[in-house]
Amino acid sequence: MRRIGCLLAREEAFPIEEAKQRALLEVALAHSPRVESVGAGLAYLDVTGLRGLFGEEPEIGQRLCRAAADRGLAVRVGIAGSRASAIFAARWGDGVAIVPPGDEAAYLAPAPCSLLDLSPEMARLLDRWGIRTLGELARLPAAALFERLGADGPRLQALARGEDPRPLSPWAPPRVLEERVEGDWTMDTIEPLIALLADLAGRVCARLAREGLSGDAFEWSCRLGDGTSHDGRFVPAVPTADSGVVGLLLRAAFESRPPQAAVTGIALRAQPVRVPPDQETLTGSSRSSPRALAETLARLAALMGPERIGVPVLLDSHRPDAMRLAPFRLAGSLPPREGRGAGEPSPVGGEGRVRGPVLALCRLRPPRPAKVTLTAGRPVHLRSDLLTGSIVASAGPWRASGEWWCERPFFQDEWDVELEGGALCRLSHDGSAWFLAGIYD
Predict the structure, then answer these.
(1) What is the DSSP letter of 240?
(2) Which of 92, 116, 278, 302 is the most exposed place for a label (fewest CB within 10 A)?
(3) Residue 105 in 3-state DSSP?
């Protein structure tokens, strides 16, 4: 008989960071060989056959709660015969909830329908029908429910009864290759340390090459003489097993941010990935040289700082030009905008397609102060250090606002205007001053 456990972080533990989610999965993996990661603050584990190791199911649930608390996580635990029953029990209960085998429908009958994560429209529809609990939903006629709700009807009814035949999708922690050196010595100059790092890079890369793998990310940890540590990480533009490339990047990283005390031990770790070989072309390899690319990026990082090197990624915000720098990776396309799937259509034009000629807006960072004359609420003249002239056509205003829940909310009106000489530009007004925000090419 299959038994599945659910680990659900309590509301006070949110937001769940990556380290906390990893700790939650490690707690589950310490008790069961089959674990599934579902999302932030949620994990499933197979508890079938664990009675001989950890006792009865209530004791297993208490062990999971204590193990999570030791890692700073407060969790609810649900154990049942299916994934749906386990998570509903965890959400509905407090602490450890055990659903007796074969009694899922009866156990869940008094539970509210809100456990189903319904869409707002579906929740309003069930509320109009007077359906408040999972038991009331489970008792509805299946044929009539299908006629009114389509395929969603039988699916929701099966979940309300605790029926969920989906198997667990096993998760395993990412493999890490590590080499370390420790001893009774200390290093207080950079050159011997870089030579030692190059030796460790050679060992790690040799292990990668023997298994036909490449390093997707490299991390180091230096134990310092004052009891602290000096940690760092870099992601090569191309996954590599070339010790020369890795040594070059390590040198650039340590020269730009050296340890602040003598080093007494050091460890270097690589996250391995398997890279499929590229097909050779008639004129040579289709992949750029990892060594040349890494050398260029390493020199830039040493000159400007590693935090200034990357690919701009737009944030899911209404604030103009809100972005962050993501690590540069050699790929076929730029990273997708955060918060929107890569395959979703662009909102330009309102229907996912661009109509007419496309202009490129060159943003001025920071925007230039400007003086704008208005007539009947519309701009008619612009004066700035870059552009000055009468405005012959204008479109706007477009209001952009947001982050009212933060200490520094923002709002501004934007106009696209054409000057008498033919120049096209964008103006912005933040409620107190005008700015020349950009110029169209």
Answers:
(1) B
(2) 278
(3) helix
Residue 159 placed within a domain:
yes
Is the pLDDT at 411 greater than 90, yes or no?
no
Q: Please enumerate in sequence order all residues whose Cβ is within 8 A of that of 252, keeping only pairs 6 or more positions apart, or say none.
A: 298, 299, 301, 302, 306
Beta carbons within 8 Å of 179's beta carbon, 6+ residues apart: 200, 203, 204, 207, 267, 268
Asked if 187 and 198 touch (Cβ cutoff 8 Å), the reply is no
Q: Please state, in angstroms and rounded to a whole number, the distance separating the CA atoms of residues 295 and 238.
A: 12
Q: Read off the CATH number of the domain in which 308 is found.
A: 3.30.1490.100
Do 12 and 107 lie in one domain? The reply is: yes
Q: How far apart are CA 425 and CA 401, in angstroms?
A: 21
Tens digits of residue pLDDT in 181-237: 887 778 888 888 888 888 999 999 999 988 888 888 899 999 888 888 889 888 777
Count how many domains the chain has. Answer: 3
Q: Are 202 and 243 in contact (CB under 8 A)?
A: yes
Classify strands 263-273 and 214-224 as parallel, antiparallel or unpaired: antiparallel
Does an H or E element contain 87, and which? Answer: helix 83-92
Going from the C-alpha of 395 to that of each of 99, 115, 301, 392, 427, the distances in angstroms are: 62, 48, 42, 11, 10
HEC assignment per residue over 159-212: HHCCCCCCCCCCCCCCCCEEEEEEEEEEECCHHHHHHHHHHHHHHHHHHHHHCC
Q: What is the pTM of this model?
A: 0.51
SS3 (DSSP) at 395: strand
CB 269 within 8 A of CB 178: yes
List for the chain the helix, strand, coil content (%; round to 5): 30, 30, 35
How many other CB atoms sit within 10 Å of the CB of residue 320? 15
Same domain for 315 and 186, yes or no, is yes
Contacts of 263 (CB under 8 A, 6+ apart): 186, 187, 188, 193, 222, 223, 224, 225, 230
Element housing 97 (H / E): strand 96-98
Cα–Cα dist 312/298, whole Å: 18
